[in-house]
Here is the input.
Amino acid sequence: MPIEPPPSTWELDLAPDEHPHDLWAVGADLEPGTLLSAYRIGLFPMRLPETPEETSVPLGWWSPVRRGVIALGVPSPRTLRRVRGRHELRVDTSFEQVVRGCGDPSRPHGWIDESFVEAYTALHRLGWAHSVECWDDDVLAGGVYGVAVGGLFAAESMFQRRPNAAKAALLGLIELLREAGDPTDRILDVQWQTPHLELLGAIEISRAEYHGRLAIALGLDLPNGLS
Here is the structure.
């Protein structure tokens, strides 16, 4: 079972449903207690866009007005199901390597720096952060990582080194969450819907709906593969 860390020294409040911006707060830290407090009220961290005159980029806490989630109660798109059987899937065997793959500085719009690698690896050691990995011939071909709290899995990022490896890892995560039961009450949070994620089954819901569903999801048990 996950180990509860010391509580955060910061007070994080729920973003009001009528708040008109995705960015809710700036500052605080990436300690395990702060991260868990944030996810439990629908926030997640990401650094603000960098400007040339900045020497350090502030930490932002986000609660999208329109939240991207993958509907677990409906079948996965055929484009996703086709790639599932070609890869070996593993859980939590190379968590830090997955985070570093997602934070590859050669990727455009990268935001996962060393502070995020260290923070989520610490959360992983406590049993809250997990990776679903796609392996080909004992080579880490891709993966997805995120934070699991009850029936919430907040997917942070995914990467691939071979074609369709990220899709296969995502489908493996979807199957793991569905096998836990209560698929309509569980949340697979992908933060924002993008054209790519829409092809993989992501939909948009309002912040108010997300908060309502989050309250239910947090009361569920973790999936067996993540507990």
Q: What stands out?
A: The longest helix spans residues 165-179.
